[in-house]
Amino acid sequence: MFTRRSFLQSAAALFAGAALSNYVQASEKQGKMIWANMLNLGHNMWGDTPRAYTPCTSKLLCQDAVWEKVTNQMAAAGLNMVLIDLGEGIQYQSHPELAIEGSWSIEKLRKELARLRAMGLEPIPKLNFSACHDTWLGDYSRMVSTQKYYSVCAELIQEVCEIFDHPRFFHLGYDEETAGHQRSYDYVVIRQGELWWHDFLFFVKTVDAQNVRPWIWSDYCWHHEEEFFKRMPKHVLQSNWYYSEEFDPAKCVYVQRFHDLDKAGFDQVPTGSNWANDVNFGRLVKYCSENISKEHLCGFLQTPWKSTTENALEHHMRAIEQIKAVMY
User: 313-322: per-residue pLDDT in tens?
Assistant: First the structure.
């Protein structure tokens, strides 16, 4: 019988016996920095009610023409990676019930992945399993931490890894699972303590089983420093994110965590955004390049946090220009 204790025991054995060299090889130790931009294929990740900041939709908010323009510009600017936030954007064969109007077929996605690779853009999948950002899971988002939930999530991860031909990384999201971030939701789910770690390690183990490296947002370490640095598997790629203009670790714990993650030996892809301002990304690159060791700085990620639609096209283009301006 699958129990929390048995899982933690098996997970501990897995991590203790894993050869970390396999993951070191997967990171950017050869001098080739990751210069990535995130694009949303799916959208239903921010709430279950119309009053949510970005309410869910029954029609895909990703326009093919805009997607093509943005990805073409990314390639022209010299970027080498696109992080694809999938959500409900795919007609999953394992769970077709998650699709909405306009969700891409697997065949369409595979063709697009081939096009991206041909342009020099490495496609990396992202499925956010934070209980704050999992509305895309439909009814399963209200089954968190049940046997059915684990089964569905494992099947989706396996399918996505196969579609992406077992990519180097798989982004699990896992950010903002707090009461404050769900204050506009009708249905609120917050895992904490041992349950948070049980579920998180389940996802790590599931990705590991596909010979793919897990990647997460690092904000859990902002307010759970001791347990995070004690229990977080070292091979999990970290993206500490920070979107403001000023970088002062004495005044902001989010900035201090770049230093802490580096000291603890975690590989990092620091993440910025032009969501709130147009100076963050350049300052992020400068600060982290000067304060994170070359051994553990794998690259940088820009997150526009806008749907891939015509009304956000200018915003996406600015995001790309900001990356291009500081690439090295």
Answer: 999 999 999 9
